[in-house]
Amino acid sequence: VQTLNKLTPGLKQVVYEAGPTGFSLARTLAAASLPVAVIAPSKTLRPSAQESKSDRLDCRKLAEFAAKELLTEVAIPTQQQESDRQVSRLRNQLGDKRVRIKQQIKSLLLQHNIKEPHGLVRWTKESVAQLNGMKLSTEMRFTLDVMLDQLNYIQAQIKRVDKQLKEMFSKDRHSRQMEILQSHPGVGPMTARQFRVEIYTPSRFRKSTQLTRYAGLCPHVSQSGQKRIDGRLMKAGQIKLRSHLVEAAWAWIRVDPDAKETFKRILGNTGEPNKAITAMARKLAIHLWKMLCDDKLYCKAA
Q: How far apart are CA 300 and CA 302, in angstroms?
């Protein structure tokens, strides 16, 4: 800030690419009334031919693109919004760790020809108790016990985070939005929480395609003349948000006859259930976005 303040008379904008440093720098500069923008690296123009690369050259290119308004800015969340989102992402990270340790335990049993206890597919209490009571060699018993301890620790941490999330989303800054989101058929607390913290300011999306791209629900389109091919989903966006929306879409078509008919129509056109449910998840995301923007509960169209 001290360095840039000396350049204020001729300073038009400060830009840097989004990355591991987060948004703390941007918020600090903004608080000092300096014009700052965080740039999406994936949307920055890249030369097709190989060129020299250094920090100085990268900075010069960013400055040139900024002067020509060729950079795409990303939204800068407030510190509170970013903190809330971090708790939600922590829950996702712990869930992934739990899946991995369960896979490691099953792989250990398979590798050493140890029969899985009945019910381990669903990881029932009885099946875990059988794992704890298995008679194995000293070394194998030690290995399995360490893995089970890791699983127990992760599950305890998940309960702790779930308690924090429940308390956090009951506060005034989230309560109204959570009520709106959960009024939509098929949307439960987990999907509502994920959508709330990842979208955080719905009005920052000017059109629905921006939202669906951010949510990872935008297909790759290849069009030339009269030929158009809708390919796989682009490898961009919030993967966890997408998975929650897809799960909610399955619940939606189970409880809403009109949604089920739409799903069947799309399925008839595509012939693939995964594509059809992804299309429904895209519709669901747009519904939730519009509901938040309008501050209205779900109302079924006549």
A: 6
Angle separating helix axes 239-255 and 189-199, nearest 10 degrees: 140
Instruction: Count CA atoms closer than 13 A to 197's CA, side-chain side.
Output: 25
pLDDT digits (tens, 9 = 90+) for 148-174: 999 999 999 999 999 999 999 999 999
The whole-angstrom separation of Cα 51 and Cα 74 is: 27
DSSP 86-137: HHHHHHHHHHHHHHHHHHHHHHHHHHTTPPPPTTTTTT-HHHHHHHHH----
Q: Distance (Å, rounded) from C-alpha 22 to C-alpha 213?
A: 21
**How far apart are the C-alpha atoms of 234 and 152, rounded to whole Å?**
36
pTM to 2 decimals? 0.85
Six-digit token pair at 232? 């796989």
Which of the residue ranges 12-26, 89-103, 158-172, 216-230 would you say has the lowest mean pLDDT?
216-230
Under 8 Å between Cβ of 292 and 199? yes
List all residues 6 or more positions away from 128 whose beta carbon is below 8 Å from its beta carbon.
120, 148
Of the chain, the end-to-end C-alpha distance in Å amounts to 56
